[in-house]
beta-glucosidase
Amino acid sequence: MVEFDFDNAPEAGLKGSLRKDFFWGYATAAPQIEGAWNVDGKGPSTWDVLAHTPGRVIDASTADDACRSYDFFREDVPLMKSYGVNAYRFSLSWSRIIPLGGKEDPVNEAGIKFYSDLIDELLEANITPFVTLFHWDVPQALEERYKSMLDPEQYVPDFVRYARMCFGRFGDRVKHWITYNEPGVYALAGYAGGAHAPNRSSDREKYEEGDTSTEPWIVGHTQLLSHAQVYHLYKADFAPTQHGTIGITLSGNWSEPYDASSPADQRAATRALEFEIAWFADPVHGTGDYPDAMRAQLGTRLPAFTAAEKKLVRGSSDFYGMNTYTAFFVRDKVPPGQPVPPEDHKGNLAWFDVNSVGVSRGAESDTEWLRTSPWGFAKLLRWVWDRYRVPIYVTENGTTARGEHVSAPPGGDVLNDVHRIEFFRAYVGEVAKAVQQGIDIRSYFGWTFLDNWEWAKGYTDRFGVTWVDFESEDKTRYPKRSAAFNREFFEHLIAH
Ligand code: PNW
């Protein structure tokens, strides 16, 4: 059924603007959808431990069952197919494949079989798998053995062995690999703020251990080094026969000066982009080193690359993997000349929803930090393209909708998710416009396929184009109208 008439809409001129082989679909992450947290030999991850620690998840929920995708993937693939996608991005649970995680530890064949079956099911449906090796769930055994990423000497070989196992077992069929999902959010939420696993922070009222002033920077560095090793491993040992691509996905929202005419606010906005994005993107896609603004604020608390490491890291991604959601107005927090506290990890910023002349960053969602800001997305695509000049794969983008969690389907109009449709209409439209302006964009993955377990927010934040009834035994799925919208929009945008 065709519901949206794009030929007689402002989007008419965007018809056929995306390349014929453009990948589009939805992204998910293992801990958020799979469930089956302790079955068929899976070892616990740091997120399983967090979920089972009282007070860590706002609705006191766990991801023990989540969407039960582990049980229902043979129904989910056809559902996704009915949404018109040609690609699906999902992550592997490390501790499902190697329950204890380490390079000498045994492999769990049942875990391998689950992903192997999922990959086969996707390929049979003509859906191209994009596989993320790491979407935040460290095997708990590695956390207990040596504090995982805080000990790069021990961690890097363990991650490399896990990656090698995945390339060896799935690489005959998987041609699109992502090493890490959002190393920046992982490092900051888990080791600075502390709300995410492994719950480390200097905030002693909430967390027992951690040092916000140093640990996020070590954890970021460890991810870069292990990512780069895995990239070169793939290129040397697998790419010659498997012919796939491999890269890293970075999180990054747009930052705009609070007062556009203030040089100090302009500098603050640039610094925001550097702390959030260039932290990883400059080493991988640019200069090979951390941005000067970070070195200036953090000094020796920010690890240094040796010459050999720089060489290893620089150029270690076939594409720019982009997760992006929103935009902010920013200016300096601590005035110039005064010391920035060592716990500051965002580049000394104050954030605003409305700028100095009263312009809002966009319509509110159900998620405090997230507003509909397609204008910022357009600027971000331009900034990333101008600075790095590598093909962009949009690997996550999406929104919650206000009040969506309170009413339940099939009654009511919760499935008519107008806010989400407007979000996708605007953001996907910006992708098409950017392509028309010469920016090389090759994929778009909406976040996300199913309402799911939104980490420390539990089941309260619904990002899906599919409503999930978490009360029901089968986690019943109900397509929202945004799924139909995207199907028709991409049909219009992709060249035939
Ligand atoms: C991403 N921010 O995390 C993750 O990759 C997903 O697993 C997650 O469910 C999704 O976005 C929605 O939250 C982010 O504050 C968390 O800008 C926070 C931010 C961005 C991305």
